[in-house]
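Annex B. Sample input.
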Amino acid sequence: MLFVMKQPTHPDELLLRGAADPTRLAILRQLAGGEQVCACDFRACCDVAQPTVSHHLKVLRESGWVRSERRGSFVYYQLNPDAVNRFQGLAGQLSPVARVAPANAAPRRLPVIQPPA
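Annex B, continued. Sample output.
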């Protein structure tokens, strides 16, 4: 019996699947600093061969996690802020914990109950 695995098509599924690998998570963590990183500089964080790094970067690019820019013979990658926001939104939808109020929100005060006179 042959099992065919359905390829994800929904953008949220692609995003989550794109990050679901230890090597890709290491790449995302390195990019979290906000700077552009050359493809040749990921080998140190991932401990894999360059062709494997290239494969993982392709998956991250196709799933929307990273943007790339070619400069001569080098390709530089940067974390896509839209993907980070989408991921945070997805994680927030799954959390039963109350949302944290924004820093500029007025503090909530509990009502004071007076004892009977």
